[in-house]
Amino acid sequence: MAAPAVTSQAPSEPLVRVAPGSASDQPEPQEARSTAVGAIKRQRSGPGQVKTMPRAYETCDPKELGVLISNMLMELIRLNDQIPLRDGRLTRFHSRAPPGISVSDYLQRLIQHATLSPPILLSMVYYIDRLCQLYSAFTINSLTVHRFLITAATVAAKGLSDSFWTNPTYARIGGIPVSELATLELEFLQKVQWKIVPKPETLVDYYNSLVDRTEGYELEPSEGDSDSSEISPDGSDVRSEDAQGRMEL
After folding, report:
1. Which of 202, 216, 215 is nearest to 57 (CA)?
2. Strand 229-231 to strand 51-53: parallel, antiparallel, or no bridges (unpaired)?
3. What ranges do the domains of the chain cover?
4. 239 contacts 228 by C-beta, under 8 angstroms
5. Where is the composition biased (Basic and acidic residues) (predicted)?
6. CATH T-level fold of 51-220+233-245
7. How confident is the model at residue 7 (pLDDT cuts 50, 70, 90)?
8. What is the number of other CB atoms lying within 10 angstroms of the CB of residue 224?
9. How high is the pLDDT of residue 115?
């Protein structure tokens, strides 16, 4: 299946899982079981390199939000792909090998063809934490991420939208059989205990975290920050130093 062109810069993709090495004195890597892993404050890019995102997640460009989510997913994948698979840790979300389409291209495909809105996309991020919390065998890695994404998109669309596509349509977009999507959907719902509608403030927190952790992105100034002018002695309106140095796209 052909992936749509993506204009935003996406992170590089791992092609294969890292095979377990020989015995070593090094401590075994820890699984990344939360989207908060690696969520450090990124260094601000230079002038002209910062992309400003709206404060209201509902109004952001879904494709730009997809870039933020792809970056977060890649951080989890790079950590979890270092951990060898063990017996009893395979789930229905595991594929035999990493699919040929990159995570970023796959997510952009879902966004475009399944018309995923920002609330649906942020709910999919919320599902990562909920599923990892309630299903100890599951982590996001290069073998699980694609099946997780199409399943989460299907569940979120049905749970949050008044209108949504049929399972055959989601399966075609995601590149899996309809029967497999139905199995994954039921497995997913059972593991998250059928609780699939996050609180609005939860989505706000996830959105702010995604913007904050991604280099080259920032939230637009709040209304209080935008009123940063002062009156000079000659009566003219002069912007503060902070406002002069801020770039908005």
Report:
1. 202
2. unpaired
3. 51-220+233-245
4. yes
5. 236-249
6. Cyclin A; domain 1 (1.10.472)
7. very low
8. 7
9. 97
The pLDDT tens digits of the residues spanning 164-222 come to 999 999 999 999 999 999 999 999 999 999 999 999 999 999 999 999 999 999 999 98
pTM of the full structure: 0.76
Q: Which residue in the block uniquely carries the two structure tokens 């090495």?
A: 21
Question: Is the Cβ–Cβ distance between 111 and 63 less than 8 Å?
Answer: yes
Tokens of 200: 């609005």
Which amino acid would we find at residue 123? S
Q: Which two tokens stand for residue 218?
A: 């920032």
Cα–Cα distances (Å) from 26 to 16, 81, 145, 195, in that order, read: 22, 16, 27, 39
Alpha helices in the chain (DSSP H): 62-80, 103-113, 118-134, 145-160, 167-174, 178-191, 200-213, 223-226, 241-245
